[in-house]
Model the fold of this input.
Amino acid sequence: MRLRPTATECLALAIAAAVSIGSIAYEEYAALRAERDASSDAQADLATGVLRLKFGGKAQPWRSTEIRLFREREGIEIQFVYGCCPTTYQSRYARTYNDRVVRDIQMRKPSFSVNQIYGDARREWELSYAIPSDDDAAR
Done:
């Protein structure tokens, strides 16, 4: 005895496949659109002399220290463009924008490092808000 899918089952599978393919295509489209938008925005900002980096994600306790260090050391404004759960568009936009701006900054100042400022901000925050350990209390 041979079992064949019903017309309804075939239609359901076809719809599921179309939705899956459409979702994948949309994510790719969003990523390409984000890259295009970010490149043109970065180009425009750099042409007007605006130094800005765009970040997002869950706020770390030392975020205000990061903002201050970027501004004081490099004259860079920080803009937060997404929260803890970015869309494909948001994350690709920020990455593309920042890559373009950082590349331009590093051409002028080869020693510039975003990670260095991140690390310095975290260390400064930890020293400012250090919680004494039990060993420190015993002294």
The chain has one domain: 7-129. Residues 7-129 form one domain. The radius of gyration is 24 Å.
